[in-house]
Every structure is written in C-alpha cells, then in structure tokens.
Design goal:
two-stranded antiparallel ribbon; 81 residues; Reverse transcriptase Ty1/copia-type domain-containing protein
Length: 81
Amino acid sequence: MNSTRFVLSVCAAYKNVMEQLDANTAFLNSGLVELVYAEDTFGVMNAKGTLCKWEKTVYGSKKATSAQDKIIYRVFLQSGF
C-alpha cells in the first residue's frame, strides 16, 4: 500500500494524470458478505465430496470484483467524495 501511495503522490506532485493503476493484491483483502462454498481444488487432500467455505474473496472469482467495489465506494464516501 505504501508503494501505491508513493506513486499517487508523485503523480499529484508533478500534476500528471494517472489513467490506470494495477494492484496485484487488490482482491486478496476483501471479505465476503454472503456464504460461498466451492469444491476442493487440485492438491487439497480432504474427504471426497466435501466443500470449502471461503472466508475472503479469491482472485478471479465473480464475487471478488463486487466486494472490492463496495470497499472502494465506502472509502470514497468516508473521504468526502
């Protein structure tokens, strides 16, 4: 997060316009609102027919983008935007 703030502050200091910023870990910290269960992935050694309960979003899942958008929206509202 500090490196992201640094990049944004340098852009602001030089009055540059940032069009896009990619954060590799953006989806890893979003919690889920509803329950999500999934089949075991390859390499997980659980009993046959069991499911995994997701506590947080997983990159590439359909719920990840929605959960991240809600967090960003809440932060913007708290910041006065």
